[in-house]
Amino acid sequence: MIPASTKRTALAAILFLAAAVPAEAHVGAGSTSSFAAGFAHPLSGLDHMTVMIAVGLWAAMKGGKAVWAWPLAFVGVMLAGGALGMLHVPVPFVEPAILASVVALGLLVALAIDLPVAAGIAVIGLFALFHGHAHGTEVPENAGGFDYMAGFAMATALLHGFGIAAGLGLGSRLRGLARAAGAACAAIGLGLAFGVL
């Protein structure tokens, strides 16, 4: 059993490391003016897929209210962040925060961190704001962006659902596999941070 203080220290160190390097995974990436483009976007990169699935896995591991509250918080705050991006409201450190989200959410699953539901909403919502803002800034000024964001929200919710289904399907007896998936997510984040992936 790893002591809680060691887990917190490792998580903080990796977050600071990931925050030091931009993901460069979002701005200017493809068409942003249709539902289909929005739906395809979360499926087009490791940073998107790993974070969305990790949220679902973590929610399934927590169980109870978190199963619906955490994914709903991510989608809702992501849409609010998208609106801020479309309105050109500046938000600092967007790309580093996105990279940090891949590592942090992976570690939360890998270490089976058990936070209260409200604290989980705060963590997930913070990262969702950055993900949404990045995509909102991609919407051209001559496009409303509604269709794109609706597609993005739908694909995000489906990826959360996949993570939840996988987590619940594995159950407590195979919880180690869910934790291994979280470790893989964190490793992907580090790979993106160091330009390996």
Number of DSSP helical runs: 8
Total number of domains: 1
Quaternary assembly: single chain
Helix content: over 70%
What structural category characterises the helix and strand content?
mainly alpha
Q: How big a fraction of the residues is strand? A: under 5%
Note down, in words, how this protein is organized.
By secondary structure, the protein is mostly helical. The chain has one domain (43-193). It is 72% helix and 0% strand. The protein contains eight helices and no strands. It has helices at residues 4-19, 35-40, 46-62, 66-86, 94-110, 117-136, 146-170, 175-193. The longest helix has 25 residues, at 146-170. The radius of gyration is 16 Å and the shape is globular.
Characterize this entry briefly.
The protein is globular and about 50 Å long. With 197 residues, it is mostly helical. It has eight helices and no strands.
Give me the secondary-structure topology:
Layout: H1 4-19, H2 35-40, H3 46-62, H4 66-86, H5 94-110, H6 117-136, H7 146-170, H8 175-193
Helix pairs in contact: 1-5, 3-4, 3-5, 3-7, 3-8, 4-6, 4-7, 5-6, 5-8
List keywords for this structure.
72% helix, 197 residues, globular, mainly alpha, 0% strand
